[in-house]
Write a structure and sequence with these properties.
Layout: H1 4-16, H2 20-32, H3 38-54, H4 58-72, H5 79-90
Helix pairs in contact: 1-2, 2-3, 3-4, 3-5, 4-5
Length: 91
Amino acid sequence: MTDYATVKEEGNKCFNESRFGEAAVCYTKALSLSNVTGNDKAVLLKNRAACYLKLDKHNEAIADCTAGILDLIVLCAFVNFYVQLCAVFLA
């Protein structure tokens, strides 16, 4: 069985190596796992949005930031998504 943390770390490695498309695929795979919720889900959405921003996929980045904001409103920890969303609009 694939572990969320393992897939996320692979995505982080790809991102740090500027392989943004591959990183986005890893984050998408991690998001598909049934045990990912709350802050873990929000981090994956934020990371994938950063990939999309690097790939000039602004609509996808906006969608992930918006989804993350909506998920984190309950947790009151959505500042990072507003920062990322601003970066998308400024790109």
